[in-house]
Amino acid sequence: MCCGPWHGGTPAPTAEALMRSRYSAYVMGLADYLIATWHPGMRPTELNLDLGGAPKPTWLGLTVKRHENPTPDTAVVEFVARLRYGGGSAKKMHEVSRFVREDGRWYYVDGDVD
């Protein structure tokens, strides 16, 4: 798996690699990894990927639209993830995410979803 090293603790080399590994973590249900890669000032104390009995999403794919580094330690990654809930029709989640690098590690800060 391409993201295995990042899921295993090796820092992702770019914000885009981190974003892709976070997508994979959602697919695989790796809540601890998602929390660990959220910026400490923004991360939730817990992340429940069990949607309270609601159907879990089936992740269908990821397309990275752009990856920019305004500075060496900040990045923006725009992506579209495709998913489906239960037997419903496929949906698109479009997000422009912000990342920062601290002490050699990239962290997800937040994102604008539309």
Q: What is the structural class?
A: alpha+beta
Strand order in space, largest sheet = 1-2-3-4
Strand content: 35-45%
Rough outline: globular
Mean pLDDT: 93
Main beta sheet: strand number and arrangement?
A: 4 strands, antiparallel
The stretches of 5 or more residues where confidence is low (pLDDT under 50) are none
Helical amount: 10-25%
The helix/strand order is: HHHEEEE
Subunit arrangement of the protein: single chain
Question: Please, how many helices?
Answer: 3
Termini gap: 29 Å
Radius of gyration: 14 Å
DSSP, total strands? 4
Task: Tell me what the structure shows.
With 114 residues, this protein is α+β, with helices and mostly antiparallel strands. The protein contains three helices and four strands; from the N terminus they run H-H-H-E-E-E-E. It has helices at residues 4-7, 15-28, 31-36; strands at residues 57-71, 74-85, 91-102, 105-113.
